[in-house]
Amino acid sequence: MADSSGLPAPRKMLRLTVIIKARDSFQGKPIVDILLSLYKQAGISGATVTHAARGYGARGVARVGKLLPEIHRMVGSNGLITTEEVSVY
Known about the structure:
The chain has helices spanning 31-41, 68-75; strands at 11-19, 25-26, 29-30, 47-48, 55-56, 80-88.
């Protein structure tokens, strides 16, 4: 349902940000490829790698929470993992 501004009602979603170095790896493979594959398999609504040419579009509902322990295991203290509630229109 749209309000008087014409915008649809926002949906609350969770944005996950993982900051790593471009050449970071996990078990001998580029971590960026492993993370994107993990997110897609888990049905994450969308993922984008910035400062690179890899990613996929936004669909569905994010399922971030259950992946955080596995992401942290891969990234460890080499990177930064944050989540933030966002409004999606």
